[in-house]
Amino acid sequence: MTIKSVNVEIITIGDEILIGQIVDTNSAWMAKELNIAGFELAQITSVHDDAQHIIDTLELALKRADIVLFTGGIGPTKDDITKQTLCKYFDTKLIFNESVFQNIERLFVNRPNAMNELNRLQAMVPENCMVIQNAVGTAPITWFEKNGKVIISMPGVPYEMKNAMNLEIIPRLQKQFETPVLLHKTVQVYGFPESALALKIADWENELPSNIKLAYLPNSGIVKLRLSGLSDNALELEIAITQQLELLSDILGNAIVAYEDIPLEQVIGKLLLAKGIMLATAESCTGGNIAHLLTTIPGSSEFFKGSVVAYSNQIKENLLGVNHEDIENEGAVSKIVAEQMAMGARKLLKSDVAIATTGIAGPTGGTAEKPVGTIWISVCYEEKTLTKIYHFGANREQNIQRATQAAFLLVKEII
Amino acid sequence: MTIKSVNVEIITIGDEILIGQIVDTNSAWMAKELNIAGFELAQITSVHDDAQHIIDTLELALKRADIVLFTGGIGPTKDDITKQTLCKYFDTKLIFNESVFQNIERLFVNRPNAMNELNRLQAMVPENCMVIQNAVGTAPITWFEKNGKVIISMPGVPYEMKNAMNLEIIPRLQKQFETPVLLHKTVQVYGFPESALALKIADWENELPSNIKLAYLPNSGIVKLRLSGLSDNALELEIAITQQLELLSDILGNAIVAYEDIPLEQVIGKLLLAKGIMLATAESCTGGNIAHLLTTIPGSSEFFKGSVVAYSNQIKENLLGVNHEDIENEGAVSKIVAEQMAMGARKLLKSDVAIATTGIAGPTGGTAEKPVGTIWISVCYEEKTLTKIYHFGANREQNIQRATQAAFLLVKEII
Description:
The structure is a homodimer. Chain A is α/β, with parallel strands linked by helices. Chain A has three domains: about 5-175, MoaB/Mog-like domain (Molybdenum Cofactor Biosythetic Enzyme, Chain A); about 180-260, Alpha-Beta Plaits (2-Layer Sandwich), CATH 3.30.70.2860; about 265-415, CinA-like (Maf protein, Alpha-Beta Complex), CATH 3.90.950.20. Chain A contains 16 helices and 17 strands. In chain A, the strands form four sheets. In chain A, strands 2-1-3-8-7-6 form a six-stranded mixed beta sheet, sandwiched between helices. A five-stranded mixed beta sheet of chain A has the order 14-13-15-16-17, sandwiched between helices. A four-stranded antiparallel beta sheet of chain A has the order 10-11-9-12, with helices on one face. In chain A, helix 12 links the parallel strand 13 and strand 14 (about 305-310). Chain A is globular, with a radius of gyration of 26 Å. The two termini of chain A are about 45 Å apart. The model of chain A has no long low-confidence stretch (mean pLDDT about 95). Chains A and B meet through helix 1, helix 2, strand 2, helix 3 and helix 6 of A and helix 1, helix 2, strand 2, helix 3 and helix 6 of B.
């Protein structure tokens, strides 16, 4: 069995990544799509809008990779230089492209502003490349070839890049290159620190076949275990990985909370949908994050009723029916208030199951008795109520995220 | 005036980035902090857990940079090889470090699981490096020097990396290297596409001093303009950039929605706080995202009352008092329903100003008359109400984000 992987590298161009103004979400998205299509992403490199550095990076990438994908640096403004730089590297000149011009004109039909000279300049493209139309933006995509290798320059605007990748670039690359089967399967494990989990599954890990690799990915109380396999036979690989997952399932049992690499809200959404259960939330310290994550799921109205974000005690009392005296005596961050919020939300929003969160997200508001990171979460379903206290850390954002994850796990436990 | 920048490169190690399982948020955070501290981040490179590729990448980085920062690949499990690889590169061996061992023991005092042999192995460190304790995790930080250059290896776990960077690494690097002043200022402009904005400010841009650079960063209807300056005199640079911003302000006026690079929710939060106004939201299509973003801000209870996420019509009617007949006649996605939701939320949640959103986020649920992306947003404040219809695109996540941004801008307009 000979398996030759097709190596891809991504080069992202733009000062905004290197000064931390934006997070490079494009590369992760591209990595996932390339992987599914059977390509191996070997390196991601981010460099400034600097001609020499761009060329040096490209030359190094071409020594290693079969395909180099550029994103960014092709907007209409002065700071963008990728097009000119590639023109120089490929020793060619910019020429006017009529069909790119028509595409830009078409895009401006629905825009309030008129087309201007900078947009017209976007129709100038390198002479010795193949031009791919950008269906949703004014910057054209350019495809170069050199010694059997492919170099493509795309916009950095995420939806323009994604549109081009899905509709044009990946299908064309799949035609041009023969790729092996790459398969990843992930299970999510709850309740073990990374090192304890590693010991628990050590024997299993040592017996893995040589073409299947294991990786550990800890994240907010959950450890993801990822099995990656490479083969020229898709079915055999699928069977081999599935067998390993079955063995793993025997060892870990209920500690596996999902057999897919999907966010917990999707795990919960699927579960609710399958059981025909409607959920509602009453959120204090999580501030709507649970509702927000659930409603990112298409069709979430099938399992999600709504939410009361009860940031003030007034709302906890008036809408959710929390007892005024209990807040006075026990404080808003207490077991009894969490429980009353959950029961109140379930009744008010007419749901089957309800989540309530109340805690001190921080950075201020903590006391000696209830330091920042103290969070009560209650979930009620039919006659059952599950209420737990958590002690997270000092970081507000992390406390909100961890409380959200914990709430989803409580829902999984109760239904 | 001679300004010599201190160049830094980041190398992130780990398959999870290159198969798109996680987004590399560490690098953006590090980039921002390094920048503030006066260092120039020249390149970010992501590579697999592969010893040869790691060493090649390090050698190339050392040709260009003064400082190389590694993140990732130093966990207790088998797939992590950064420590061993650096050991090999620096031609040294692993030795047991007593203080690292004590640090690991200390961390396990508060953990439910006992320390195990894999954790003990984490106390093995390269002999010829300086060890920096990881105050919040078991993997030590290692600091190597070679020909006046510094190479540091850190954990990939974000809060461990951030803790080490803030408390140890950046202060030590600042002591060891003399850095020039790097200053970035960003304004956020609403209402212009990138190319139209570029033409409007072309004369101003052409007159910028040579040590101040301009960059355009378009994002969900807003274009950020970033001025970056390099100098050996902090005060002179601050004045020069401020003068340019004043000139820009004369040209763009109210189109500038913020003079800082902060998210819109923070712009709105500050404004509400300054005016002593309390906000509430009634969210249908945004599903709690507006509440979520506002409550990521520390102290948001000073300006945010709470929210009703009204995903079902039942909740719109029962809680927010939307007229049943109006939903029947006009549909839930309509001007009149948006307005009633806003007014209902303002009354129910006892706030001064209320935002309501109702629309078709997609991907399904669209009709010929109201396609996916059709969203009504209403904001009411005292006797005023501002209600607008938006036509965004087909992407659910993007529709939620763009509606959220649009809602913040309406609040800015009305108060």
